[in-house]
User: What shape does this take?
Amino acid sequence: MKFVKIDPPGTFCTQEALRDALRHRGGQTFLDVGCGSGALSRLLCDAGLTGTGVDFSARAIKIAGETLAPYVADGRYRLHLGDIYDLPANFAGVDLAISYMVMEHVHDDVAFLQTIAKFVKPGGNLIIAVPGRRDCWSFEDETVGHLRRYDRDDLDAVMSKANLSRISVWSIGVPTINMLFNLSLWMVTRADAETAKVGLSQREQTETSGIREIPWKTVFPSWVRIILNRVTLYPLFVIQRWFYRTNLGVVMMGMGQVGGDGSKHAPPM
Assistant: This one.
């Protein structure tokens, strides 16, 4: 049976949460730190933004280039192979920076956010997504190079220490990701390529974390698109909005402003 890349339900929910955030924290230009396969960069480009993707995995950069080929060709998107810490100060000045499922891999998360913030214009925004809930630490965290998971208050505190303002933290993908969590973990434990990663270095695990191919988790038979698409999953997007302000998220998304008005937390959205 041939398997192809199709986003699972939780990823659709995560992407829809980003669309919700863009209505409040959008802009015209963006930087995607740890862009992986380029799926979120593609979402932003499809929404009309112009941007840059950065990743230290050469394989990820190659895949992202294929994902965003039309936007690369017309000059609306560029890719950079490298580490965010090594970029020159004038590398970018954007309205929005995003970094999804990256910060849990770095030792100093506050410095990580401060480094990204240097490339965001004053008044611009930073959107971060991380694995949520410490009590959900699992075998999968140990195969993909995670150093930690974040409770909602944890992410809020890190963003505050990084001097971001108008901070808001959402639990996303509830209850969809929560219900699929154990099934997803079971699929990882059955994949020989994933269990073999336990012995790799943390950097090696990190380099492949965003481009894994696990049957029935990240790749599916092509006919599954009939079931897994934005139209059929729309009810899940509506439901997850009821839970944004809870502590239930197995994935947490934080938003903060760079050089804002000094108020630490944003009003409810």
Q: What stands out?
A: The chain has one domain: 3-257.
